[in-house]
Amino acid sequence: MTEALRARIAASREASRAIARRWLEGAEYRTLENMFADCPLESAEPAADRAERLLSDSGWATALIDPLVAALDHDPFFEPPFKISRDARRFGAVLFDCPAISITMSIASATAMATLPAPASMVFTGRMAVTRYLKAGGATLRRWRAEPITARFGAATAVPARALPPVTLVDGDMMRLDGRIEAQLVAEARSDVVTLAATVRPGAAPLMREYAIPDGVLIRTASNDDRASRTEMLLAFLRLSGRADAGEQFGAVTRDPAFHVRWAAMREWLALDARAALPRLAEMATGDANMEVRAAATLTLVAVERRLEQARCLA
Predict the structure, then answer these.
(1) Tens digit of pLDDT for each residue in 217-258?
(2) 34 in helix, strand or coil?
């Protein structure tokens, strides 16, 4: 890299920061902030309702990104002030993000849909979302439904997802998806599909779920809760730090409403201080609301009791 090019990139970076500050303080961005500032966070519906009203007219999005498009036309090294994601199938940019909602503009490639292997699975995101199809590209929206996650949910006994009738999309369509029980895939587009999507944060299911398309069988799950992920990380830190004095904290998390968090806490506690965790493990084996947690606790209880007895005999 030449000195001249290095200097130009540095200057562009400074200019990008100045433009970003003006953009974040601009009327269009402030309108979004005000629209969701007092949005209730107890459930998904209030944010989804506001998102539908917002997306019913896409003019705000044009006004929002026009200054950035102009900046990019003027300077090819311009750095937009938002997160960008790209894969073989689509390009996306997060235009707005707050505790209630995340708004993304995406372009899905029709060429990729036609040439890449078709997806073998669909994902139930666990979150409600509202999508406006600015350019539908003649695409087909494939849809599925699954049972909601309850305290008794178990991967081994999960009912397969079932296919719903597909929908042919047209420009301007707006769809509300309840990702807690619904999944969808855009397919068979004749031209690129351009969307504005608002993903709702409140009211999310505890897990994302991935199901196989051919038979609807559950493939895997993943945590959908930032709070739960942070809790598990902190418990792992306590274990690695040898904090056997934190038994009260471990015990409290084994009573978390989310079954996967309860069991994650118990695993960490057992690895740290199995003897202290044993009484609570026995309680979970007989009384946990989730069948898989009870089964795992029952099997683990036998192994832990055997190991502790062997250690006592060797002492």
Answers:
(1) 999 998 887 788 888 899 999 999 999 999 999 999 999 988
(2) helix
| Residue type for position 139 | A
Q: Say if residues 225 and 217 touch (Cβ distance below 8 Å).
A: no
Q: How far apart are CA 227 and CA 83, in angstroms?
A: 22
Using alpha carbons only, give the angle 103, 261, 153 rounded to the nearest 5 degrees. Answer: 85
CB 105 within 8 A of CB 93: yes
Return d(Cα 95, Cα 79) in angstroms, integer: 14
Q: How far is CA 79 from the centre of its chain?
A: 25
pLDDT in tens, 104-159: 999 999 999 999 999 999 999 999 999 999 999 999 999 999 999 987 888 888 99
Strand 90-97, strand 182-187: pairing = unpaired
Cα–Cα distance between 236 and 217 in angstroms, integer? 31
3-state secondary structure of 254: coil
Query: Can you list the positions of beta strands (E) in the chain?
Result: 84-86, 90-97, 101-108, 121-124, 128-135, 140-145, 162-168, 174-178, 182-187, 193-200, 207-212, 218-223
| Ordered DSSP codes for 217-244 | -EEEEEE--HHHHHHHHHHHHHHHTT-G
